Amino acid sequence: MSMSSNNTKKSPKNSPKNSPRNSPRKDMEKEMSPADVNVMEVDMESLRQLQLGGGLALGDTPKTRTQIFLDIGKKTCIGLGLIVMIYVINLLAIETAGAAGMGGLGNAAATHGTTSTHETGHVEQAAQTSTHVEVASASGHSDTQEIAEITHPDIQFILCGNLTKDTTLFNIYDYLITCQVVVMEGVTLTVEAGTTVRANQTWDGTIPSIFIVQGAKIIANGTHENPITFTSAMEFIPEGAHGLWGGLVLNGYAHVQHPDTYYGFPFGGGDDEDSSGILSYVRIWYGGYLVNALQLNGVGRGTVMNYVESAHSQLDGVNMHGGTVDLRHLAAYFAADAAIKVDNGYQGRMQHVFVMVATVGNAGLEITGDGASQPRTHPVIRSATFLGNWPHNMGSMMKMHYGAGGSLQNIIIQNAETAVQHDHCYDEAHSQGKQSLPFDFPDYFFFSTNNFIYVASETSTAFAATPDCSGGLTTAHFENPQLIGVPEQLEPLPNGALSPVPLPTSLVQQAEEEEVPGQGFFETVLYAGAFDGLAEDMWVRDWTWLDNNLKLLPKPVENTEYLCGAQKYNKTIFANTSYVLTCQWFVRNGAFLTMMPGSSIMAAEDQTGRSPAIVVERGSKIIADCTKEQPCTFGSNIDPSELPAEGKWGGLVICGAAPTHGNSSMEIAGLKGAEYGGLDPDDFSGVLRYVRVWYGGHQLAPGQYVSGLTLAGVGRQTIVENVEVAYSEDNGIEFFGGTVDAKYLSVLYAKGHGIDFTQGYNGRVQFAFVLQNSDGGYAMNVKSSTLDTDFFKQPRTHPQVRSVTIIGQTDNNHHALLDVSYAAGGSFKAFLMQGRKIFEHTDCANEEVTQGMPTISRPHFLYVSPYNIYMNNTKDVTVVSEDDTCEVDIMNRSRRMAENASGEHHESGWELSYYGDLLGTYRTDRTYDNRREREIAEANYEPGIFKDMPDYSGKPLNASQGKLDPRLTTEAKQVMVSWMRTLQGSIDGDPDDGSFFVPVPYIGAFDAGYGSENNWLEGWTWLAQHDKLAENIFDAAFRPSHFAVLVLVVLYTFSDF
Fold this sequence. Notes:
By secondary structure, this protein is mostly beta strands. The chain has ten helices and 66 strands. It has a 27-stranded mixed beta sheet that branches. The protein has a 27-stranded parallel beta sheet that branches.
């Protein structure tokens, strides 16, 4: 935003002294006529008097005609001098451009020497060097137990045995549970807000858990800013860990179907208002060893539970085993069994519940009854969001069985293979609707039609039931709830990706108010799901495992939208909105993704090994029809000071239905369900025009990297023009089969191959520019199959490639500029290659290899034009290398190679044209009409083949290395033209296929001469945007800034006339 200054000077008001109407000069002009003034004879004293009187300024002395003519001449000379100076500066610019070619915390016990010991149980100060402690088990015997080593540096006190007096755990210490801790009847265990309690796994059969028996209490009253944490003692917890300790068990006196004992401790009774204490802002992580992470046995509704989280349990995340306890703001995710399980006659209420199912999880919610036994299990759940992990978990999200009842209202279920599974029904009634419940509590199961079920795929099921439950549940909202950020794969969860909050415009924000059992407990909400799309933020922010591990989307930012998960409807990306890609985003179900000119999507960096990526699935389209002035960009949102850098996100993947190797459907590695390939060579996947993909190429799954741009089975009706990939950690542009044609491709500094043709690609490419990375692979890699048994599968990879400029590195002797291998065919013409290793040919089969006219049809031959030009900027150059499978006497096919100038074949049989030889043969000295023409030509002489190609190491150009201009020098163009005339049209043995190719009178991707039309990299590519292209000298002489200077010169010269 520009700001106006408040200090603008105002012109002084006219005073009587200098008002024009009182000016003596005006009076004089009225009184004098032209005849009265002799410009040759001026009364100097009169002029002085006029000046003193204010009538004339000192500079207003009238000039003689001679002085006027002298001033005109002087200013004209100055103007001409400035013009000449600008011209000389431009000449100098032309000449110069042409010649450039983490530790632990301290022991708090040292300053707070307080140790609390309570009879048989104790809180013992931990000795950092000891692994033996005295413990007393629940059975009452005492001996020395060897426990797992205390590995976390923050541990200060050990918890073990029975607590028989009120005990407080202070937040200035950290605690370690080494065995079963039992809070005995009448005892209260208080845990201060902000306290962390860790636990080791034990190996003697005891359970490293906390048991709150009947009549005991736990007061764990944390806060949003200082939550209470129960977790593992491991300092570094591996991804996907579960069951590293036991859990937190509460036994109460409320009603249950079957009173019993839990590990020897009784539960159940007749007091539904019983209180076992408070759990508020409590986090339970990595539990579930032998006990459920949070086990509530017959707990009464006098117990306060609000903001409770269970993450990564080996067993159930939360188990309500009878009782009547109510819960608000319950989060449970990634349990290896059920995230939430309700059974044994539980009749409590839950609101604001958030569940995510683990890859190995059994269910998100399991409600189990016992036939017609009373009290019948009947939870009342409102405002809940359940996220599945399809296709990595193909189970059911909700399981209701064995005569259980329940009421589920304002629920969202998304991405589950089966949303609701109902089985083994008894005499309970089944009801759906919105307003009234016609049955007596608790003998029914009610599933509101206000609930949303968004199935994962076309084969997914909303409701599944056994015959004894048939005729029950059938209806819900099946529309997209439009949750802001839901990754396709929840575990491991990408960093910065999750936001289960609906858009403010989502249908879930229009849920109807319903009659609800237990209305006094529930907050009135008019939206479905656990989160309000109109709220300032989500309630899992700041205090949960999700936030602690950076899994949540950043807080809402104005004019910023986050992209993640599945996009099943049309989406437009606008230039005036910021878009952040936070996880793998799948455009599917035939949806169109439209990029407006100038729009961009920037990806967040991920540390889990599953980088954000955009996947346009087969049948969907991407329309990125952008312009040179307003290109579309896919890049990284990390600090710009850390760029450029490879592998900061995944890439853009487009899947089509065109033929691929073996004519079979295939799947993108690391992207389960992302299939490509088919039988339609004319398949249309959209438009990519003036599109830039920067800083991608990272792994989609551990060890499975993706190219910056992947065109997988894309058909020839798709438009790909002016597309660039820069700084990819893997390949730059990957053609996985398909028939798509492409023009004007730029690939810079890919660590994998620059352009990769594989899996049976049979398309055409013209005008491609590749800057090889010093540590990168082949600049252009062509292969048909990596398995010997697939050598003969069809279609054989056979790209037709024309007009290519490849710049290799003098320090890369491992990978050639052009590599053809594994029985690949193809046709490669008009290549201009500079580097240390030019061409490599390996793993041949039955393809015809020729440098003349092929005798068999495409795709069964390999043609590499002998008129492809190479040059080297080092003495250590390898022009052609082959392996034994490609030797003439082994290959069972025709091999007809071109001869060199002396009539002899190269040792390999391949012939390429060396620019140095062409220069010596076809260079001609120009003639000039006068000495001035010769001097100008000599001053602007451009040696070499490229206008500016600094000797650099495959990394970004810096100021000391100069800038880059890949256009041909005038001399190189003249040599090529003379050479082509001599060849008389025989330059290509393989005729061009169709009208796709544009005839050009030069070799390589760029013409000679000045003007942006000869350098199609200008204005939109990474090199242009980062000032790495040499200035277009032809345009420089007529730049707007220079023209403005000329205008100012003219105005200055004639300002007085």
